[in-house]
Amino acid sequence: MGGNHTQTKFILLGITDSPYAQTPLFVFFLLIYIVTLVGNVGIITLVQVSPSLHTPMYFFLTHFAFLEVCYTTVISPRMLADLLSDDKTISFSECMMQFLTFAFFATIECHLLAMMAYDQHVAICQPLLYVTIISSRVCWQLVASSYLFAFLSAIIYTWCVFGGFFCGPNHIDHFFCDEVPVLKLLCSDTHSSEMVILAFITINVVGMSVVFLLSYISILCTVLRMCSVQSRARAFHTCASHLMAVASFFGTKIFMYLQPPSSHRSLDKVASIIYTVVTPMLNPCIYSLRNKEVKAAPVKLWVYICLLKE
């Protein structure tokens, strides 16, 4: 990859260099990580054991919750360890693998959010054809294709970021190995790499955002044509949780990766914390607290278990 990196090590500067803030931050982010794991694993388990939730919408939600667990696990354990450790070094191979897996799961999430938007578009705009269009086979094909494209994208991202020559400073001004701070350490020209990365980010982030916007424009037009106020309210309530998840995910992604390199500043760490740590914790709450079917599923499951015992 452009040079001998076997002995290369980086130093992650982390969230803060204040020794007084590190312990409180460790406790705070540890609690967030635990809540994230419990919430997302809880959704996966609930959907799997509740027959009433075996629908395409919750099929996608299960995969989304699984990705949130993987996504935050790539970042949080290392970040927590660094908050309590004086040694914040990370080897070249560890840094590269962290970025590869992070890019992989982040790209899949972009595609999955777009799929969920399309699923809701079909459910509201073409309800009579929903079972035919969003069949079980189609669901698996959509998810499998997103995994494949995400893997190819992550390989290209990683090659562009780590394929140059590192011969200067080794301090990464971030709490994980992300594209922008690592590219700043390259001694070779990064213009071509930045253009390739921008092209793929445009396809994945902006492209999926367009799918999302077109789906919701169609949904909005359909909802406004509904005669019943109750039907409108139900449709808006169904879409509200997905809109909140998309806004937090795509908003921070666009802020981070589609601004000029010269514009990156200290707010980047705050944006990174939001989409790597906070958003994966909030999504289970967003989908469960705002969804009547999810809230009703534990009660139905308990009644079903009680009937079986009798």
TrEMBL record:
Membrane topology type: Multi-pass membrane protein
Source organism per UniProt: Amazona collaria
Keyword terms: G-protein coupled receptor, Glycoprotein, Membrane, Receptor, Transducer, Transmembrane, Transmembrane helix
Function: Odorant receptor.
Name assigned to this protein: G-protein coupled receptors family 1 profile domain-containing protein
Predominant cellular place of this UniProt entry's protein: membrane
Lineage top rank: taxon: Eukaryota
Compartments reported by the entry: Membrane
Transmembrane annotation, as ranges: 25-46, 58-76, 96-118, 139-166, 195-223, 235-258, 270-289
One GO cellular component, as annotated: membrane
Domain called G-protein coupled receptors family 1 profile: residue spans: 39-287
GO molecular function, one term: olfactory receptor activity
PROSITE patterns: G_PROTEIN_RECEP_F1_2
InterPro entries: GPCR_Rhodpsn, GPCR_Rhodpsn_7TM, Olfact_rcpt
